[in-house]
Specification:
Layout: H1 7-11, E1 18-23, E2 29-35, H2 38-43, H3 53-61, E3 64-69, H4 73-87, E4 96-97, E5 103-106, E6 115-118, E7 127-129, H5 136-149, H6 167-170, H7 185-199, H8 203-219, H9 223-242, E8 254-262, E9 265-274, E10 277-286, H10 295-306, E11 315-317, H11 325-336, E12 341-343, H12 348-368, H13 371-387, E13 395-404, E14 407-417, E15 420-421, E16 427-430, H14 445-463, E17 470-474, H15 477-489, E18 497-500, E19 506-509, E20 516-517, H16 523-552, H17 564-574, H18 577-582, H19 585-592, H20 594-606
Helix pairs in contact: 4-11, 5-7, 8-9, 13-16, 14-15, 19-20
């Protein structure tokens, strides 16, 4: 394996915390990892052959290693997260959120804060609440903050020196902090505090605050203010009564993770509990391809990436133990500016909530990766093993030629991604062929395959992709050689292609003298047969259409100056092609003009 060529370099690595990056021959980062002792961790890969097909694929692709030393494991953890996010290495576990839910931002760094919709939490001192599910709930809550508490929505620099308030004040959507005589900074601060309570879902506390303010306003005979507090109180009470949430007050603020990992990938559910209520549910997923095998490894990678853009709560509950708990806790505590604790509950309400999140994760897995999808990935994995491919062939392109004695030769190319046919990317080609001294094209299946493969991947190179993980050729050794000739002529000889012969259903590979025979019931062969049969169907359909179009063409189409309109006029006037042949120059000229009439007479004279 190429990794053994790095043995001397690995022996000289430092025994310090840091991050290591594996690179391939193209210089791309294919895996990023952290380590307490870089030399020991990187050297462990030299004995990892045979651990799993994905580890073997990684080891086969490694050509270089780069390390970055840090002062602590926590710093290595943060650096690893940043590098994974920037470079998206294909062998790392990559987390996908089901949606990018918005946050609400209260710009507390301003003297008179506003409420804004934000897509991510930024460090800087502002207050954030969320994420909000569904997304429209964020804007609805922001609208309530304007209507109930009069938080401003303008971009003005507030000095309190404005002569008169704007229309927002007149329609009771702003308490006009721009006019100091109407709204003082202290009064606006009370509105901001109420807005924070609303956004955090602390409705019981907000109701008590509004009730107290309403009573004090009434006692002071500020009846308009008291009426406003009364309306706000009724709205918040209605919101509280409509909430249908899991509630256990003693559980406080925490995030609860549920996990399900299977052959098709992973699914996670995160329940965000605030003030004892589950106020948010986020669905996360991973896909196969990473070298992480254990549930704990997947969960740890997900945990790190999930909180890269989120502020963690005081406690995080997991379904199982993970490695490096202490540095992860320290990293999370640094991000939250307070202590964050990670635990695995064993009993009681906390364990019940973890089990609930896990059941939801299992349901999400079955929904996202149903039996058909799982079967597709199993077939792709068995195909990868049978052909000794470095990774799962997620994108497969298949070519087929259709012709009858060299007549109207056409080709088809179909695409299969993740085991599903992708019809929007099918392509069909008319074979231009090799001409001999100006004659008609010479029928040659090998030349046709060479032409269509060359045309296809020259276009792919011009467009910058996408490149397939596997090319399937309908045919045997000869067609496969023709395809590789085409690929090498345009500098893509590194693409993997196989030939699938129809009768014996044997697989031909360039680097093997003998064909590979798969069992008739093996998922890999059934998948290839399905793709090949689809390419054949698409090619035959196109060939039949091409023949029918040829049969519908008239010999008049070969005459210079004759198009569809004049051809129709001639056939209508003279009844048939024979009638056109018998017509005189004058009769033809009366229909299509003297110049075209001469062209028709000359054409038939040459071809009689």
């Amino acid at each position: 394996m190429p990794i053994y060529d790095l043995k001397e370099q690995i022996a000289r690595l430092p025994e310090q915390p840091g991050v290591y990056l594996w690179r391939n021959a193209a210089g791309e980062t294919i895996y990023v990892g952290k380590a307490r002792a870089l030399r020991d961790r990187v050297r462990s890969y030299m004995g990892a052959a045979g651990v799993s097909p994905r580890h073997d694929a990684l080891l086969e692709e490694i050509t270089a290693v780069e390390v970055i030393v840090t002062d602590s494991v926590m710093e290595a953890l943060a650096l690893e997260n940043n590098l994974i996010k920037q470079r998206r290495p294909k062998y790392n576990i990559l987390l996908r959120d089901d949606k990018n839910y918005p946050y609400l931002q209260v710009t507390t760094t301003e003297a008179f804060p506003r409420v804004l919709v934000a897509r991510r939490v930024e460090k800087g001192g502002d207050f954030y609440a969320g994420p909000f599910l569904p997304a429209k709930l964020a804007r609805r809550t922001m609208g309530l903050s304007h209507r109930l508490f009069g938080i401003r929505s303008c971009n003005e620099v507030i000095t309190g020196q404005r002569g008169r308030p704007c229309l927002e004040y007149d329609i009771k959507r702003c308490i006009a902090p721009c006019v100091a005589e109407i709204c003082t900074e202290e009064r606006y601060g009370v509105a901001v505090t109420s807005t924070k309570l609303l956004m955090e879902g602390r409705n019981d506390e907000l109701i008590e605050t509004l009730r107290d303010r309403m009573a004090r306003a009434a006692e002071g005979e500020r009846f308009e203010e008291a009426a406003q507090m009364r309306d706000a109180l009724r709205t918040v009470q209605t919101l509280r009564d409509r909430q249908q949430k899991v509630a256990t007050p003693q559980l406080g603020d925490r995030d609860v993770f549920g996990l399900k990992v299977g052959p098709s990938g992973g699914a996670m559910q995160v329940f965000a509990m605030r003030a004892g209520r589950v106020v948010e549910r986020v669905e996360l997923s991973t896909e196969p391809g990473g070298v992480a095998q254990r549930d704990a490894e997947v969960l740890q990678a997900a945990l790190q990436q999930f909180y890269e853009d989120r502020v963690p709560p005081a406690e995080i509950n997991l379904p199982l133990e993970i490695d490096d708990v202490e540095p992860i806790e320290a990293w999370l505590s640094m991000r939250a500016d307070r202590r964050v604790r990670i635990s695995v509950p064993q009993r009681g309400d906390k364990r019940a909530l973890v089990d609930l999140a896990t059941r939801n994760a299992e349901l999400a897995y079955r929904t996202k990766f149903n039996e058909a999808t799982a079967a597709h990935f199993d077939a792709l994995e068995s195909l990868r093993e049978a052909l000794a491919l470095p990774a799962i062939p997620r994108r497969i392109e298949c070519f087929d030629i259709s012709t009858i004695q060299g007549s109207e030769t056409v080709a088809s190319m179909v695409v299969c991604e993740d085991g599903r046919m992708k019809r929007s990317e099918y392509r069909k080609y008319r074979i231009r062929g090799i001409r001999d001294q100006g004659s008609s094209p010479i029928p040659d299946d090998f030349a046709a395959m060479r032409e269509v493969v060359q045309r296809r991947y020259r276009k792919v190179m011009e467009d910058g992709g996408p490149f397939p993980d596997l090319v399937v050729i309908d045919g045997g050794k000869g067609q496969l050689s023709a395809a590789y000739d085409a690929l090498e002529s345009i500098g893509l000889g590194n693409l993997v292609a196989v030939g699938l012969a129809k009768k014996e259903e044997l697989l031909f590979l360039r680097d093997r003298d003998e064909p590979v025979a798969l069992g008739t019931s093996e998922p890999a062969l059934l998948l290839l047969q399905r793709i090949r049969d689809e390419a054949h169907r698409f090619a035959v359909t196109f060939h039949r259409k091409a023949r029918s179009m040829r049969d519908l063409r008239s010999e008049l189409d070969s005459v210079s100056g004759i198009g569809p309109r004049r051809r129709r006029a001639l056939l209508t006037a003279f009844g048939s092609l024979a009638g056109v042949r018998r017509a005189t120059r004058e009769e033809l000229a009366a229909v299509v003009g003297p110049k075209t009439a001469t062209a028709v007479i000359d054409y038939f004279a040459r071809n009689t």
